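Lab meeting notes turned into a lecture example. A postdoc, R.K., suggested we walk through two folding results consecutively so the class can see how the record format repeats. The first protein's sequence and structure tokens come next.
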Amino acid sequence: MTTSRSHPATAVPAAPGAPAWAAGILGRANGLVTALHAAFVVLVLASAVRYLSGHGFGDRAPWVLTGAVVLLATYAAYRVLPSRVWLALLVAVWFGLVLLAPSFAWCAVPLSFVALRVLPFWPACAVVAGMVVTTVVTWTRMTDRLDPTIVLGPVCVAVLAVGAYRALERDALKRQALLDDLHAAQGDLADAQHQAGVLAERARLSREIHDSVAQGLSSINLLLQAAEREWDDRPGAAREHAAQAAATARDGLDEVRRVVRDLAPAELASGDPALPGALRSTCERLAAHTGVDVQVQVHGTPVALGAEVETALLRTARGALANVLEHADATTAVVTLTYQPDAVVLDVRDDGRGMTARPTDPDRGRGLAGIRERLQALGGTLVLESEPGEGTALAASVPLERS
């Protein structure tokens, strides 16, 4: 059983190579990035226009406009600078610009959200508090009096922003914890179902062997012992016992063949030729449970191939599709079954990333070796073609016996 785990309400770490947004509170809430970009640019431009409308192009205007351009340029550098260095430069430029023109204090609103996205909770709170103090002081200096709305307005905005982010962060972490537990439970359930299936199959085979092969061998042994005892005194009865033993042996051989035949995939028991339908049902199941569009195409006239060949081709298709789903990162896979006059060919193609290198781990790559060995046992061949970024194509061919 999977036990639930506690998840502290801490910032989500940034992935290597991620932009500056990727750490801190709700660092993966990517839908907010566009809104922050737009709000910041609009507020910077509006603050510059407000300053020019009130002060004209004289006095500090060149410095204010230069500071606004530097602020926008610094903001645009979030992809190339380390996140905390970028935030520190951004706040420093904003601070200097607010000292020149208090109108730019409104830019503290998107900057507060930026700080909450980049930094862990308490350092982000400290940055937000510093910007609130700066805003209150600069506006109070500009109006030459202490206005309660100027003091309480930025404080309320900051408290609401931080509180909302904190609540959303905790909710997101709880959902992630539930998803992690659900995935772990699904894995445990799949393992339990697999183990139960293995045990059930072992029990079935045990019953089949006991009720057919073992009992047949026991009967043959008893009949032969009886024939041995009566061979001299009652040769007719002895021959009858021997004949019964031979018949029982033939029946036992038929039972063994039936057990072996039942080990083939169940889809192939639907009739001849069963392989096209088995491929379609397999691909439909895969497409229903994954994001890969798996298509099946059949060319030529389907003919009965025999249980051994059909089983080998079906398991080849399953193995190839398992590799596509696990490694290829593909969106589409096409399985083509072609009946030729002298051979049957199975092609599996995908539009994934292709094979970039041969596996170095000796425990990897055995699936293809198993497929090749299975086909070689039937006189078939396996051809694999792959280029990085251009997908992979696997072609399995098995010759047909001419009648």
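The second example is placed directly after the first for contrast:
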Amino acid sequence: MTDLPEPRLLDRFGRVGRDLRVSVTDRCNLRCTYCMPAEGLDWLPKPEMLTDDELVRVVRVMVGLGVTNVRLTGGEPLLRRSLVDVVRAVAALEPRPRIAMTTNGIGLDRLAAPLADAGLDRVNVSLDTVDPQQFRDLTRRDRFAGVEAGLKAAADAGLTPVKVNAVAMRGVNDTGVAELLQWCLDRGYALRFIEQMPLDAQHAWDRTQMVSQAEILERLGERFRLTPVQERGSAPAELFLVDGGPETVGVIASVSAPFCAACDRVRLTADGQLRNCLFSRSEIDLRGPLRDGASDEEVAALVVGEMWAKKAGHGIDRPDFVQPDRPMSAIGG
């Protein structure tokens, strides 16, 4: 890898934007109960979505501003038919960023090898339970076997470490967190629990029903010996060695133990809006300037300005906190 450019994505609190989350589609082939209603959502019309060239151009501009990690998200990114081409184009950038993807794993059995060949470095697969019936109830789809196949294909293709993301929900799957960890350990997957966040389309999130990091660790501790890993940096997950290691389990405690002070992330939605925080209630349009003939320098200036406006934290604990209008599926994870 060539020398990295000097960081230019700075905010007023001294944080540097290095991690770009790119939503390539808002569509999804699951209907997870904590994310969207059974009938789905009104998807973006195709003309409103960034084209491949537009998307890659924004990534190129941001790599020039110091971004070193690009994560492709959705919705479900595997639903974008041109995904392999997008990965190949991003991998060809100089300097080359690390490229990851967050997916539900459905279809990954077919695409893991082509994506790896195109330049994808690793994947995170969202999986909240390994009980097939519970999976069906949670996602409203009978696709657990497809996710299993996708995980195996990712490991076989070298998209490692293969990580599993899980949301623990009270009265739904919270009693099975230890079983999920054992399932992942047996297969060589790295498990990361994520606290449920106020990003559902129904706006029905209730903090009192959220399973906190402390509760997750307590349940895991009934079966495993957990030792905190001291070095964390800007990583969202706090890691713990399992029974002395080397395997780890992580918890992303965005609500109960926010890590905003070390956040290095910025987000691009599928329709070309740039967001400096997952919970931001404002965003800046890049699609319009791109289609109106803006130069790379003009696009870069918009990006730099949006990053400078980033707030100190998401403010979930503040009494005036208001959930973003866009749900997670439309923002990108």
